Amino acid sequence: ETTWRMATKMPVDSPEGQVFEKFADLTEEYTNGELKIDVYPNEQLGKEDAVLEQLQANIVQVYAEGFGYLKKWEPALAWVAAAFAFDDFDHWQRFMTSDTVSGWFDTAAEQSGVRPLGDPTQVLRGPFRVMVSNVPVETAADIEGIKIRMHENKVAIETWDHLGAEVITLPWTEVYQGISKGIVEAVNSPVALVESMRFNEVAPYITRHDEYWQSIGFMVNEEALAALDEDTRAGLLRAYEDTGAYSQEVMFGVAEESIARMEEAGATYTVLDTAPLVEKMQGFYEAMAASGELPEGFIDAIEASRTASQ
Amino acid sequence: MAWILIGSFIALILLRVPISIAIGMATVLTFLTSDFSNALQIIPQQMLEGVNKASLTAVPFFIMAGNLMNVTGVTERIFAFANALVGHLKAGLAQVNILSSMIFAGISGAAVADCAGLGAIEIKAMREAGYKPDFAAAITVASSVIGPLIPPSIGLVIYAFLAQQSIERMFLAGLVPGILVGLALMIYVRLRAGFQDFPTQPRATVREVAHTAQHGFAALMAPAIILGSIMFGFVTATEAGVLACLYCIFLGVWYRELTLGKFFSALSDTAMMTAVIMIIIAFSIAMGWLLAIDQTPQKLADWTFSLTENRNVFLALLLVFIILVGCVVEGVPAKLILVPTLLPLIDAYGIDRVHFGIIIQLGLLIGIATPPMGIGLYIVAEVGRVRFEKVTLAVLPMLLPLFAVLILLTYVPQTVTFLPDLILGKQ
Amino acid sequence: MTPQDYHPQSPLTRALNRLDRASWSLGGAFLWLSNLCLLIMLALTAATIVLRPLGLAAYWMWPWTMVFFIWLSFFGFFALYARLKDVRVDFIAGLFGPMGMAVTRLVSDLATLSVTGVLLWQLPRVIATSRGVYDGAILPAGLELPRLALSVPLFVSAALILLTALLDLAKMAAGMPENVTDHHPEI
Ligand code: NA
Ligand code: NA
């Protein structure tokens, strides 16, 4: 009988918190109580770098967060959420399970002893991204010249600059005031956060643009995983897969309810055709590949996974 | 585990170990006696986590604003203005002492700048007017409690970060309680002046009031600038602290009182005070990690809940507990240990986190006026040249109005939550 | 009493006093490093307030403000120890007279050695696992500041504090008085 510690950033009562709770419950059930998982929410054990170090040291056994944080062991993993690089979710999923990306995860695991549990796209975050603006955004052309808030990230800034927006950096907590004061007109956000940040009050146009896809990686310590017996490990994996399905259900359910409430309160919800953006970004990625800023094989892997291999 | 932690910390403090080392040693001892004795790398790791907190960058600037006021003569102007307003009342300079602290509180985030800077002026004036030095020092310490309640406040910045509340909300919540403490002390002084003779002063003429108000006006503007710029969202809390510092520097240059030497002395004082606070925070976060991974807060919550489910009884126990801790542990480390530990309980009893924040803030603040860790007592004893024991005795009756306000705030939550709910909306 | 006030009479106390003065000066240097960090924080934040409405605030300003905040705290650790800026409760020790002061002096030094000793003992593990960079803290060459650089001042301060505590034990053995101050900072 083993107890694992699982660290997360999210509060217990958030939708993601519920998903983690479900994972803990299912694991106990599917392993017949052989593996118990204690969840430590709210960054109780520290921020990303600190928790990853604890994961390495096998003090924590699971960390549920974005894969981007693994970039310190394999820089290529900073690119798994590349903006407008994928046609749709399925394309991204094929990319994430390709040999190229698996190779990146292997490199990270060799250095750190930390790797994702199962298919890395199962547990969704967001569950999708939107732009919230105080001017209508109905086509890709509407993005031209829009004053958009960005976090302090070089690639994100260059991306939206390339797409024609006027980028202004602002802390996340200042966005509401920033829009109401006219400092910015728009912000990108996971749909799940729009209502809780009250963005819709000052920016009533909500446009689903699927800027990039995000999943929550269940990163585990390899040693701890290897120490489990076969049945327990199988139960754990089954719990992970069922948690994935549950997360889709919960996240999309929450998003739909939230959108309905915001529409009720006067917001306009649009789904953007992103094909022109994806096309425009190809030039951006090619230029970056040419200057050596992109990981080896990145563009090829995107192209190779563009169509489903039957 | 919690007992080793608190016990060794208090023992080390009483054994004259410097506080930053004492909390470090208590952390090391607790780690060594836990299941994580082979994971000591967590200590330096979590120390980095502890100081790598964006919301805490406001701390040095709210300290610096108070220090700058003291070196630029703004403090004297505040005192002169308060004197013109209430100096003629019974026990006038005692009332001035309290009112000055209320005005000063609007720009300074720590009680030290009040005790050491404003306090030196107040005690000197009161001694010269014929007040007993121990009374003068005592009312100075008691009124310095107002400073970290009225925004800005370092303690509330730290609580906001620990309890995941917005700094704006905590600041608004502290305003009314801070004024209530000031009023309670003023009433206390007035009642005492009813059966005890204190020196009096003539009433200031309208011209004198106007004159000092004109001089003090710039200082009175500062709180409006700080709170206003945060509330209207022009700046973050940290930036508001910087604005306050820039404003003080501007005033110092305007009044031709700020020399380079004075500026650097204020800078050094700020850097050292910040470093003490942040090193304590750094070790406390390491300790907090251990408490979190051991699930101590949940265990404590379950245990307490099994004792009583009555919220009012719990609140009474909580008050006694906080005051006892405040007597032996300084406010910042006490909050860092207690808040994460108590939050599950606070939530379980359905107590508002903002409300609890003000209770713990005032409860621990009272500790600056009680031995053995009554830092305020040490400072006023030093700047007022009074014996420590004499101030300690003189301050005892003044704790009554402080306790009265604390009990009022505890059992009438609206006194705390009304203002933030009105301005920011209910949570 | 500070090292400057002490007048050594023997070669041993003269040597120890010279070391003590060096440690005192080094504490002053670290105090100035802290001051410098604070000034840079002030300047960066002031610049942000002015430049943001103009759309000119650079994205690296905030991360660097955080870096200097961290360094302010860690450089300050040695400064506050060497320059006696920390809080000490001495009245209980005082009740027991010179004996009380001597015993608590020993306890303080031993506690200091243990705490800094543990920190330095863990240094190899910290170096082994600290990977990656501090996001947004870009350096002129376009790279970002390594995460490990954040903790360097902590370990430097810890090492210097350890040496200062050892020095105080040597002073005690040589019958020299302890460095003390009347300073009572608030926290
Ligand atoms: Na006062
Ligand atoms: Na204040």
From TrEMBL, chain B:
Molecular functions per Gene Ontology: transmembrane transporter activity
Alphabetized Pfam families for the sequence: DctM (PF06808)
Keywords carried by this UniProt record: Cell inner membrane, Cell membrane, Membrane, Transmembrane, Transmembrane helix, Transport
Claim: Nuclease is one of the keywords in the record: no
Topology versus the membrane: Multi-pass membrane protein
Subcellular location: Cell inner membrane
Domain TRAP C4-dicarboxylate transport system permease DctM subunit: residue ranges: 6-414
Main location: membrane
GO cellular component: plasma membrane
Residue spans crossing the bilayer: 98-123, 135-163, 169-189, 224-252, 272-292, 313-338, 358-381, 393-412
Entry-linked NCBIfam families: dctM
Subunit and interaction comment: The complex comprises the extracytoplasmic solute receptor protein and the two transmembrane proteins.
Function: Part of the tripartite ATP-independent periplasmic (TRAP) transport system.
Family note: Belongs to the TRAP transporter large permease family.
Protein name as it appears in the record: TRAP transporter large permease protein
Organism: Salipiger marinus
From TrEMBL, chain C:
Cell compartment(s), UniProt: Cell inner membrane
Membrane topology: Multi-pass membrane protein
Domain Tripartite ATP-independent periplasmic transporters DctQ component, first and last residues per copy: 41-172
Keywords per UniProt: Cell inner membrane, Cell membrane, Membrane, Transmembrane, Transmembrane helix, Transport
Superkingdom of the organism of origin: Bacteria
Coiled-coil ranges (or none): none
InterPro entries: DctQ, TRAP_DctQ
Transmembrane segments: 24-49, 61-82, 103-123, 148-167
GO molecular function, one term: transmembrane transporter activity
GO annotation, cellular component aspect: plasma membrane
Keyword tRNA processing: no
UniProt similarity note: Belongs to the TRAP transporter small permease family.
Function: Part of the tripartite ATP-independent periplasmic (TRAP) transport system.
Quaternary structure and interacting proteins, as annotated: The complex comprises the extracytoplasmic solute receptor protein and the two transmembrane proteins.
Protein name: TRAP transporter small permease protein
Species in which this protein is naturally found: Salipiger marinus
